[in-house]
Amino acid sequence: MQNTLQRLHWDLTEKIIGVYHQVHYEFGDGFLEKLCQRALVIGLRDAGLTVEEQVPVMIKFRGQTIGECVFDIVVNGLVIVEVKSCNRLEPRHRAQGMNYLRASIYEVALVFNFGPTREFDRLIYTNDRKITLAQADALRTP
H helices of 63-119, where? Predict the structure, then answer.
C-alpha cells in the first residue's frame, strides 16, 4: 500500500515536475515568486494542463470558518503547486504544503523552489487520514 500511496497522481506530478525543470532552466532563478509562478503557469498550460491560479480556500476549525488561504496553483483539479524563490526549501515550506493538504480536499502537493538550488518536495496527505466534521464533533462530545 505504501508504494501505491507514494504513486498517487504519479503521471500528473511527473509531468508537472518536468515542466518545472524546463521553466526553471529557461527562466532562471532569483526572480520574485509571483513572476516564477506566472512563468510556471505558462509552461503548464503550454503542456496541455488545466491550471487555476490563486485558488482561495476557506479554513475551518471545529466547523467554523476562521479564515482563508490562497493556493498558488491547482493543476487539473488534483494537485496543489506552491512556488517559492529562496536559497533552499526549508521545513516551514514543507509544513505549509502539508497544512494546505490537511485543510483541503486535495491529496497531493508540490512545492517548487525557483532559487539557485533547483529543488522540490512532493507531499501526500490522503483524505482518509483527515479528520471529518463528524469525527471532530464526536471528539468534543463527552
Answer: 91-102
